[in-house]
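Action item from last week, closing it out:
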Amino acid sequence: MYKIQTHEEPRLPVVNLVSETVDGCKGHGVHTAFVQTQNALLRAGVEVRVNASERCDIVHIETMGLASLFQLLRARERAVVTAHIVPESLVGSFLLAPLWLPIGVAYMHAFYSLADEVLAVSPEVRDGLQRMRLKVPVRVVPNAVDVARFRPQPGWREEIRARLGIAPGTFVAICAGQIQPRKGVEAFIETARSMPDVAFVWVGGMPFRRLTDRYGHMLDLVAGAPANCHFVGDATYAEMPKWYASADCLFFPSIQETFGLAIIEAAAAGLPLVLRDIGTYGPLFGDTYLGGDDSTFAALITRLRDDIVEQARYQDLSHSLASRFDTPRLAELLIAVYDEVLTRSEAERARPARRLRPVLQWALGGRSGRRFG
């Protein structure tokens, strides 16, 4: 285990956990991942300082905006970066992304290259980073959830259904995510239109507002959704277990994902999973979900609604899946990463972190070594 000086007893490192979502937009999975990471480390006995200006043992960066870049550039400590997205994640998420995508790719490459190590949240992200030809160590450290807090509690199901006017015996399919083309909003609405006896609930909004890809079209889709399709807007992290408890399955038609944290949250709540059959999920989730496409989603939801044995089987598979992504495992993986990064010799460090970051620090902070902000 890492120790600061040779005469000290081995101890866990002090971590500066950096996320721009703390004082910014919280209605997306990257903020949830930050919260889960912070809680996992704290429960494991790690001292965590958030967006700290004082020196720590290691810097762990969860977001990649300009504020995070400044934190990375000024860090004299060794630094790891969690990669939640690849360039493909931008298309269908943000306005005019295909036009400025080359700039986004160059920025991603430069940002990730300054880290001592990049932590990919899935094999999909790892493969995307390898296609970018980063000269930095990359390893997979999946997202996690606090499984216990998503276990349904008495009264939650009835509370949410009463709020939406959904009868107790109605089968409910829920989705959690931003309203944007990449998330499969059109497929969600069309499936709801074809199944008027099932209630469809979408939790999430457009936190980036007019920067959202096809913003006006998304507003029109939501306004024209059938009566059995409920778009309830953003919900706080604390409220999400209640929303999952109100449902009978997760219906997640997203077209592109690098992980899908809502999937593990729903699994922790014991919901059977109906997902679009994309390549990201197989390596992560195995055979624990029902995979389909626009032409089969309704049939898969009908299968769960009408067959209680099948529903129970996929509930059990979800519980098993969630246990593999519980937060104690995340803490264990991260502590191992920190230990390995901190104990590398200078010669073993990635060249950009070892050579380029000090040069940029000198240029931006001056010869005195002062920090800049």
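Closing note: Confidence is low (pLDDT under 50) at residues 366-373.
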